[in-house]
């Protein structure tokens, strides 16, 4: 097997969880070229995976929305003459793409199993996302030597984040803790007042600099938190590229976040992380990178299974994790 395609998943955190698949393929087929078919949202993340040789974008909502543009993508896949496609996504449309592309071996998940030569039964009950993806390879008979999620840093990003921090008044030898305040959806957010207390606790107890990160959509939320914390944190929300954010996480002593893409990005580059879990379950989406991890999850009854009640107005599952819990975890890490 010399030319392999992996049809990947849609979410940032799940893309990180898929990285051991590419490493395992390289371990089993050292001379093979490994390509990835993915949507635009996760392309930039996968560019930092050292085990992917080529990325093919499937833009299902824009460029490849129409049947004739999907057919153009089929032609592109056919011309690449893949020996096998490993399907991590259950989409029938994606199964049809690799079927029509004439890829001889089609292995993995698909709602329409007849499109695949080696369909794998899908089960996600109590199974970590990473292991769901690796099961595709294991059921095909491949050996998994390393299950660690891994992304690599760009040296240029390391230099650039040092410059950015220095411009914000953070010296190269100063110790920092990164707080990522967002959580994809409101239900997963730790209360803003808790972040305010955490900033004050870190500054007063540990004499470390605090850096706030987030996307453009999180900027106002971060600014409000920092204002309530008397502007004691360094604001980097919406001010870094993905590569610079990875370098920032790697430089930090600790990164604190709810269950979100950035938490898994940080752990995948070796950062020590503290994960705040409420509606989601640690055994399904817990950190699986190479850093140390302390995860908080408190059973409040309604979160015995992953909770997707996005209209919940009282996320008690997140509120039960206290600022003191996190400060004690930080103390354990740094001592």
Explain this structure.
The chain has 335 residues and is of the alpha/beta class. It has 2 domains: 3-139, Rossmann fold, CATH 3.40.50.2000; 155-334, Rossmann fold (3-Layer(aba) Sandwich). Helix content is 39%, strand content 16%. The protein has 14 helices and 12 strands. It has helices at residues 12-17, 19-28, 40-46, 67-79, 92-100, 129-139, 155-167, 192-206, 219-228, 242-251, 261-268, 282-285, 316-319, 323-334, and strands at residues 3-7, 33-38, 54-57, 84-87, 105-108, 118-119, 176-180, 209-213, 234-235, 254-258, 273-277, 293-297. The strands form 2 sheets. It has a 6-stranded parallel sheet with strand order 3-2-1-4-5-6, with helices on both faces.
Blueprint of the fold:
Blueprint: E1 3-7, H1 12-17, H2 19-28, E2 33-38, H3 40-46, E3 54-57, H4 67-79, E4 84-87, H5 92-100, E5 105-108, E6 118-119, H6 129-139, H7 155-167, E7 176-180, H8 192-206, E8 209-213, H9 219-228, E9 234-235, H10 242-251, E10 254-258, H11 261-268, E11 273-277, H12 282-285, E12 293-297, H13 316-319, H14 323-334
Parallel strand pairs: 1-2, 1-4, 2-3, 4-5, 5-6, 7-8, 7-10, 8-9, 10-11, 11-12
- How many distinct folded domains? 2
Count of DSSP H/I helices: 14
- How far apart the termini lie comes to 49 Å
Strand content: 15-25%
Tell me the strand order in the biggest sheet.
3-2-1-4-5-6
List keywords for this structure.
six-stranded parallel sheet, alpha/beta, Rossmann fold, 335 residues, 39% helix, 12 strands, globular, 2 domains
Short note summarizing the structure:
With 335 residues, the chain is of the alpha/beta class. Helix content is 39%, strand content 16%.
